[in-house]
Structure formats: C-alpha cells, structure tokens
C-alpha cells in the first residue's frame, strides 16, 4: 500500500492511497474492493452494486459478493433476492422450476407461498361397482367427487385430487342377464335330456321289433305226392 492520504481523495473517501484507491469511506457509504490485476482498488458507493450485499459495521460499511449459486442480487450471504435470467427464486435460492406445491406468482420468476386451491365439498359416495357392473360380485369399489372452484394462476394441476375411491362390500346378487342365461342353459339341458331319452326309447323299440322278427317262424307248404 502506498502512502495514505486524507486530502486529494475521491469524493466520499476519507482515506486513500495512490496504489489502492480508497481505504476508508465516509459514514453511510459502502466501500467496494474491485480487483485490477494484482491490485484491489477501493471505491465508495451509496449502495452496493448487483451481485453484492451491504454489510454495515461500526468502523466501516462493506460490499460483500453474493456466494449463492446462480444468484444475481442478494440480501445477505445466504439469501438471494434475484436469480439469473430463466431461473426461479424460492426462499433465497435459485431453481430451474418452482418446488412441488409452489407456483410463480403473477407471471414473475418468484415462487409464491404453497398453492392454495379452493375446493368444493365432497359429493356423496356412488354405488358399489366392479368393472362398471353393479351386480354379480361381493367386493368392489365406490367413489365420490368434488370440484375445483379456484386454482392459483388458473393452473389446476397444482390442486389436490378431485376423485376419491374406496373398497366396498355388498351382498352378492346375480345379474338379471345371468339369471336369464342360466335359465336358458337349464332349458337347453332339459331339452337335451328329453331328446336323449326319446332317442333311447326309439332305439329300444326298434331293437325289440328286430328281435321279434328274428324269432318268427315261416309256415312250410306240404308238397303234393307225385301222380
């Protein structure tokens, strides 16, 4: 550091040197150290520039560089106030997208508080069903629904589910079409049995007739004596 001077310094600087610029700023001003090759040049500013935050001390106020990743402007060492272009700000940090349950407020790049969706009351539970059928089973499912009355920024994907499903048990009852089908099958079976019996009786009668014909005697005509 070259010889310190208190006269001939830049405006707002109380103490300076020819080699390192300002060494102490006037009260209420912040000193910013800029690197120039191997030197650090001190300048005095009313507020810290982008990428720095102001740290006030009793002896001298300083501008400290932001250390948060992808941060363009910060409030303190660990709290960002503006992210680089294209990134979202959330609780002093920068993200590619807002965390789950949060959304960018009013087209800004700042994630708002947890998304609050206004939902209607749940409707009544529907009938117990299975594979869209209301009969022919014992255990199935029943569901109920509700509506989204208002979504933040109009994005309904941030709202909770509108359908709820639960298991249900009913007394097993046969479907009407199943009853008809069973009755038709029973009728076909009865007809089949009847036809089988009739066929059996027919075969039996035919066999009896054949046996009767085999046992019949043919009368023999006596031959007249030769004259």
TrEMBL record:
Instruction: State where composition is biased (Basic and acidic residues).
Output: 195-204
Q: Where is this region: Disordered?
A: 173-227
The record's annotation in Pfam families points to: Furin-like_2, TSP1_spondin
Any GO BP: positive regulation of canonical Wnt signaling pathway
Give residue ranges for domain R-spondin Fu-CRD.
11-111
**Where can this protein be found?**
Nucleus; Secreted
Question: Can you give the residue ranges of the Spondin-like TSP1 domain?
Answer: 117-172
Domain of life of the native organism: Eukaryota
Q: Where are the membrane-spanning stretches? A: none
What keywords are assigned to this protein? Disulfide bond, Glycoprotein, Heparin-binding, Nucleus, Repeat, Secreted, Sensory transduction, Signal, Wnt signaling pathway
> Briefly, what is this protein's role?
Activator of the canonical Wnt signaling pathway by acting as a ligand for LGR4-6 receptors. Upon binding to LGR4-6 (LGR4, LGR5 or LGR6), LGR4-6 associate with phosphorylated LRP6 and frizzled receptors that are activated by extracellular Wnt receptors, triggering the canonical Wnt signaling pathway to increase expression of target genes. Also regulates the canonical Wnt/beta-catenin-dependent pathway and non-canonical Wnt signaling by acting as an inhibitor of ZNRF3, an important regulator of the Wnt signaling pathway. Acts as a ligand for frizzled FZD8 and LRP6.
The family line of this record is: Belongs to the R-spondin family.
The name of this protein is R-spondin-1
Q: Which gene encodes it?
A: Rspo1
């Amino acid at each position: 550091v070259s010889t310190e001077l208190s006269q001939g310094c830049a405006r707002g600087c109380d103490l300076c040197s020819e080699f390192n610029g300002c060494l102490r700023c006037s009260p209420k001003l912040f000193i910013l150290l800029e690197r120039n090759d191997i030197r650090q040049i001190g300048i005095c500013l009313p507020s810290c520039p982008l990428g720095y935050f102001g740290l006030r001390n009793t002896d001298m106020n300083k501008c400290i560089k932001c250390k948060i990743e992808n941060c363009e402007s910060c409030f303190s060492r660990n709290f960002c106030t503006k992210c680089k272009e294209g990134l979202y700000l959330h609780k002093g940090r920068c993200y590619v997208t807002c965390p789950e349950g949060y959304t960018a407020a009013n087209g800004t790049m700042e994630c708002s508080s947890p998304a609050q969706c206004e939902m209607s009351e749940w409707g009544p539970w529907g009938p117990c069903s299975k594979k869209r059928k209301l009969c022919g089973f014992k255990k199935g499912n029943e569901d109920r629904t509700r509506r989204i009355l208002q979504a933040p920024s109009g994005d309904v994907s941030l709202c909770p589910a509108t359908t709820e499903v639960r298991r249900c048990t009913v007394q097993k009852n046969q479907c009407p079409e199943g009853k008809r089908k069973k009755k038709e099958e029973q009728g076909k079976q009865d007809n089949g049995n009847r036809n089988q019996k009739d066929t059996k009786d027919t075969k039996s009668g035919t066999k009896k007739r054949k046996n009767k014909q085999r046992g019949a005697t043919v009368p023999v005509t006596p031959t007249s004596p030769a004259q």
